[in-house]
Design brief:
By secondary structure, this protein is mainly alpha-helical. A six-stranded mixed β-sheet has the order 2-1-3-4-5-6, with helices on one face. Strand 4 and strand 5 form a beta hairpin. The protein is globular.
């Protein structure tokens, strides 16, 4: 009965039966099998006290040497992030199998203790595909994408294991986040030699990888070749098109999805709304939002409201967007206010921006810095340096730290990272010299004029120009021009929104050097060709 309740996740009944067994006395004492099942049930409880009491019974009845019981205890303590207790169980076990090591390893990876996990993984006498999966998924879950790909390559060199579907989905996600197209292609080649290409999870991961690596054509090819399209497949394609600013195509695929009888979920509609926002399809986006509940039975979440605010704000309909926020059935969060404030910056509406920062101060008492940066940008673009200084003082008083601009570029399968004003790259002197040459040609032959509005300090014109010249995406593109053959597309991933000056520079560089330059910033793709950006300067 305990086993049955455990399998049905009826953890309280399982524990109650266990207590009854103990109360009946020695004629019905629990054995190692009983302990294994009841500990598994305790892992599903909301508090650890149940499992801890079972552990005490394990010790009392002398079952603490059984491997299966101890493996269950390791999993239990890992679930509740009691890794010190898990360590004691692990170290006192007389016999440890691969499940033991992997259970303990999983506890570290689940709770972002990857350095401990690396140390433990290195000591494992035996590893199976689950062990590798735990490590690689742990790296991806903590944003250590380069490490995930390194461990995947190590896994491929281990003749005793083969990557499973979960590992392949994880490493494709890592490639997507890094914009590592070459490595993504190699993983696809590996997949094509297996039967896993038919998996919808793999197809969805490939669509996402190609889209985030700038190859929307390859993403479309995977989508068109997928015979069993579930809602996640459709959503992946719609989100991919939206990310590339192809809102009309996203709406077309969405319409096709509905025609084939596939019901959208809330993530699907989020992708559609994003596509409308990045393409200026105001009425189409509002129509989709209005139909969410009545047509598809989906109640809009705050993310959907945020998309509509962004949609209206980007189109310059700031008052309509502000009224929409005021009519929201839930309290607007910081993301909604930032979306509107960002539109105020684009359209230089200081009065509304100042109103919004008051709301941000109330919604964001801990002082997340995004709103203040946007307001500071707005003041700086208008040359109102006293107000910029005032915002900066508020940020200092609240100890708000800004995110450092960071860009990544993959060359010959190696991902290189740059930060603004980078001095750490081993070829930085050569890169700076190349960048100076590139910007000079962009000015003389491409019509590039430095836009110093992104500079948030009252500096001389020369100092401002120098400040924007060393943005991370400019360093990355200079490195790309240095390190790739003429005509090769350059793909850059940026952690923040691309600034106005870098956007102008990329257009000129693409024209002068006859290169396609693809920049994936925080919210969308920009594909620069022959002096024109795919966003049509609407971003």
């Amino acid at each position: 009965m305990i086993q049955a309740y455990s399998k049905k996740q009826n953890c309280q009944e399982s524990f109650n039966l266990f207590r009854q067994m103990l109360a009946l006395g020695y004629g019905s004492m629990p054995d190692k099998y009983t302990f294994t099942f009841v500990i598994t049930s305790c892992s599903q409880q909301k508090i650890p006290i149940y499992g801890e009491s079972v552990h005490a019974s394990v010790m009392k009845l002398g079952c603490q040497s059984d491997t299966f019981v101890c493996n269950s205890l390791l999993n239990f303590y890992s679930v509740f992030e009691k890794m010190e207790e898990a360590r004691v169980v692990f170290e006192e076990m007389p016999h440890k199998d691969v499940v033991t090591w992997t259970s303990f390893l999983s506890g570290y990876t689940k709770h972002d203790k990857m350095d401990r996990a690396i140390e433990l993984f290195g000591k494992m006498p035996e590893r199976n595909e689950v062990s590798w999966t735990v490590m690689i998924s742990g790296f991806v879950g903590t944003g250590r994408y380069t490490d995930a790909l390194h461990y995947f390559n190590c896994m491929l060199s281990d003749d005793t294991v083969k990557p499973n579907e979960a590992v392949l989905v994880c490493v494709l996600s890592a490639c997507a986040c890094l914009g590592a197209l070459d490595q993504g292609k190699r993983i696809r080649s590996y997949i094509e030699n297996t039967e896993m290409l038919k998996s919808s999870n793999i197809s969805n991961a490939l669509i996402d990888m190609y889209a985030k690596c700038g190859r929307i054509d390859c993403a479309s090819s995977i989508f068109n070749g997928t015979f069993r399209r579930d809602v996640y497949t459709w959503t992946s394609m719609i989100s991919a098109l939206s990310m590339h600013g192809l809102g009309e195509d996203a709406l077309r695929v969405f319409s096709q999805m509905l025609d084939e009888g596939v019901k959208p979920d809330d993530i699907t509609l989020l992708g559609v709304l994003n596509g409308c926002s990045h393409s200026g399809l105001v009425e189409e986006g509002c129509s989709v939002f209005d139909k969410m509940e009545s047509f598809w039975g989906i109640f809009p979440k705050i993310e959907h409201y945020g998309c509509v605010v962004d949609l209206l704000g980007r189109a310059g309909q700031l008052e309509r967007a502000f009224e929409f926020v005021q009519r929201m059935p839930m309290e607007p969060d910081i993301v909604v206010w930032r979306a509107l404030l960002s539109s105020c910056r684009i359209h230089r509406n200081v009065e509304l921006g100042e109103q919004i920062i008051d709301h941000i101060s109330q919604s964001d008492p801990c002082g997340q810095g995004g709103g203040y940066v946007l307001l500071s940008n707005l003041y700086a673009s208008l040359g109102r340096w006293d107000e910029v200084d005032g915002v900066r003082k508020q940020m200092n008083d609240k100890k708000i730290e800004l995110n450092t601009g960071c860009s990544w570029i993959e060359v010959d399968g190696v991902v290189h990272e740059f930060i603004s004003a980078d001095k750490l790259h081993p070829r930085i002197t050569e890169i700076q010299q190349k960048l100076n040459h590139v910007l000079k040609k962009a000015r003389t032959e491409g019509g590039y004029i430095t836009n110093t509005n992104p500079v948030l300090f009252d500096l001389s014109d020369e100092e401002k120009e120098q400040a924007v010249s060393w943005h991370s995406e400019k360093l990355a593109v200079a490195f790309g021009l240095l390190s790739t053959h003429p005509g090769t597309p350059i793909m850059i991933v940026k952690n923040l929104r691309i600034c106005d000056d870098c956007h102008s520079a990329m257009k000129a560089i693409s024209l002068v050097f006859s290169r396609e330059i693809i920049v994936r910033d925080r919210s969308r793709f920009h594909s620069f060709r022959e002096g024109i950006c795919s966003c049509k300067d609407y971003w």
